[in-house]
Structure formats: C-alpha cells, structure tokens
C-alpha cells in the first residue's frame, strides 16, 4: 500500500499506486491557485467518489495566499476627497433671438411638444423637453440664452476657475456646488488667449477647494475628469494622459494636455485631477466628429492656469511680454538653407518697427535659439515663453545671425491687445508693360518691384508661377514680392539667379527666400534642382 500524504490523514487512502500523490504544501499551493481562478477542487478515491480535499491546514494556506493578492486599485477615495470642490456653472445672457431667424422658429425645431426628441430630453435632459445648456428662451422665440459648463474652487473664500468661453458675455453666472446649493458668482476677469476665467462666490469662507499641481504630468499618468456633462453635474470619468504640448490652433499659446478620459459638452472649465488629488489641467476642448466623446480631450496645463489667475485676481486682466517680431517655425528645409544641424528655434520673418527686438538689433533671418539660457524648440515655444514673462523684464536672447551666434539683451514691452497687420490692398500683379524674366528651375517669372504698379520699390515681384513647379508647391503666388534670397537683398531676376547659383555651389539642397505678401513677410525654403 502506498503511504498517505501526512497532512491529509483524514482522507480515505489511495489504493491504486498509479495515482500521483502530492505533498501537503504543494497541494495547498495548487489549491490556492485554482481557488483564485474560481475552480472547485476535489479528490477522488476509488470507492468513495469525489470528496472535499480542503483540510483546515489547506484552508489556512489558501487564505494566507489570497490575502497577499493585490486588489484592483479604484479611485473612490480620491473622488470622495476632490469632488466637493467641483461646481456646475450656469450662465444667462440677456440676448434676444430674432423671430425671423429660421433656426429659432417653432416649426423648424426638433423639440416640438410631443416629439420624440422632447420626450427623450424630458426623461434624460431638461424638464421642459430641451437639452440642458441648449435652451434659448421660451417657445415664443425670445428670451434669455442660457448655457452650462463646469469649474472648481481654488480657495476657501470662493474663488473658482472655469473657461472664458463658458462665461464670455454672461450677464448672470450661477454656480451649483456638489451638495446641491446654488450661489451667484461674479466674473473677476477673463483671458481669451488661454481660455481661462476667474469667478468669485461671496458669503462663505469654508468652500472645499482643489490645489493646482506644481508638477508636470507624464504621458501614461492616470487622470480623473470631474464636471457637468450635458447638465448632469458631479460626473466622474477616468483615463490617462495621452500626449502633451498639443497645438490645436486655438490660440498663440496652445500647449494642451491631451487626455482620453471621456469629456463631453458641459465639461468645459472642469478639472482634470491626478492621483494625488491635484488639478493637472482645466478641460477646455474635445475632438468630436460626432459631437460626443471619442476619447480625445484637451486640458489647459495647471502651470498656465496659475500664471493667468494670479494676474486676473490682482488686476482683472493679463499683461504679457512682447519683443515685437513676426516669427515662423524652422523647418528641415529652412535649417538646411541656414546651415543649422537641427530644425529648432524660431525664425524671425520680420521685426516690427520700433519694437524691442528691432531696437536691440534683431533682423529678418535671425534665428532665436534660447531665452535666458533655456533652449527654444520652436516658434510657438518662443511665443509661450515670452508671453509668460511680465512686461518690463530684462531678457537675454541667443540669436543665430548670418551664421554667427550672438547674445542680445533687451527689455520686454507689453503685448498690445490687438496687433493689426496693415495689408496693401493693391498687390500689383502682372504689369502689361513688364512681362518679367523667367527663372525656369524654380518655375517663377520675376520683374523688378519698382516696375510693377503697387508692388513697392524693394525686391522683385512674382508675375507668374508655373503650375506644379517647386515654387508653386511652396505656395508662391502672383503678386508676391521676393525681398531676399540666401540672406542677400535682390532687385532683379539676375540677383535671384546669382544667389541661387551660390547656394547650389555650397551644396545646399534648398535656398531660403524672404517673401512679402500684403503687409507681412515670411521665409520660404525652395528646393534646388541639381545640375
């Protein structure tokens, strides 16, 4: 007879030697594994049928192993702590909707009394059968326009952050806290360039509030979005940081955090929390072909929000530094034309007359590579860096000037509220008396600017662009004026040819041209044909 396992003495003996026997420790370990998978374990004796093999020793081992298994991590503790600081924001604009507007007529509305859309929104949306945040006054077509968004308190005395586009133009702002109480709020200040607004609720000094994060989120970090989507206040969604430094064409200071936590209409102005319970960003935009969440949302970084609200709180507006240059990115072609190893920095297309940069000696074609010793990656980073500094500050710019590095010191001016580009309405164009001279390898026909009416006196004017030519591919148009080629001023087609030939002799793959269109100028790198 085969000897029984010592730790399973209460079990019937195995009478068949072909059965493999396990030690108590191995069996307990196996039992703990399969128990974790939800599988019942039985022993089989030849005459007794299935019997439960879990002795008290085995049960103890299983319980010990399961206690060491890590439970899935949830967000309930974080949400419980931060959710009271989040508010729903409702605005009222005393704006009349014209009766003549077809979109506002009752007979054109999908929300007719008794309609399927009205029944749907009565059940899931607004009490009057219209979607929350999309009501436009009484059914007569006139009345106040209302909208909804989100926000969050940043101090116990009632200061709160939301989006500029949530409260823009509002005559009345109301906020509803997590406990259901409603308060009237005052707009302290707004900043359209970053879409940040600061509002204030008076009368209490014990509001629960959130802290803006000091750190920079990493791609892959958890993020919790809390807000008021579709008027459903107090909604929490979770995701991760998908990307950072996003430019979505919203403004000159775009530097958004991209998140994949579901964000919908009404979440605007609400916070995106990290796992420390701090606000990493303010939700402001979604990419949505359908109008709903597709997992791509954008948040304003906490660092940007901090700098803006500090100024809004102090003076109700934001002042930004200004050096007075028109800049553009350094592309690979432009970098090759300038002899740069990397396509980095900001290319000065044109310094503005009497601006700080012009007074300090910065010229068209210079590349700004660093501000106060910090490298400048691209043109947008330069705009954000300078815009984040206060007017009157002294800054040190590293500049590549005609292939030579130099340092320029200047004092920042204040960014004007509006900067007008004065366009020359008469771009000239092809002049009947002057056909121009061809530059066939580029696909351009050129004439001295002073020979074409309205083209000015400097440079050469483009009178014709060959279709599918290198120049056409780079966006040249009839009426453009070429001011410089490879850093040299040009006054006729011969100057252009000589500058191109010199660049080709230097084994350049492209030649850099400064082009004026209307009242603004830019640099264009045009590829050079070999031979």
What does this structure look like?
With 531 residues, the chain is an alpha+beta fold. 18% of the residues lie in helices and 31% in strands. A hairpin with a 2-residue loop joins β20 and β21. α1 crosses α2. The N and C termini lie far apart (97 Å). Its EC number is 3.4.21.107. GO terms for molecular function: serine-type endopeptidase activity. InterPro entries: PDZ, PDZ_sf, Pept_S1C_Do, Peptidase_S1_PA, Peptidase_S1C.
Fold-level CATH name of the largest domain:
Thrombin, subunit H
Estimated radius of gyration: 34 Å
Mean pLDDT metric: 77
Determine the strand fraction and express it as a percent band: 25-35%
What is the CATH architecture term of the largest domain? Beta Barrel
- In the CATH scheme, the class of the largest domain would be Mainly Beta
Number of domains: 4
Number of helices, counting only DSSP H or I runs of 4 residues or more: 11
Alpha-carbon distance between the termini?
A: 97 Å
Shape: elongated
Broad structural category: alpha+beta
InterPro entries: PDZ (IPR001478), PDZ_sf (IPR036034), Pept_S1C_Do (IPR011782), Peptidase_S1_PA (IPR009003), Peptidase_S1C (IPR001940)
Catalytic activity: Acts on substrates that are at least partially unfolded. The cleavage site P1 residue is normally between a pair of hydrophobic residues, such as Val-|-Val
Region (Disordered): 99-118, 123-145
Domain PDZ: 324-378, 434-518
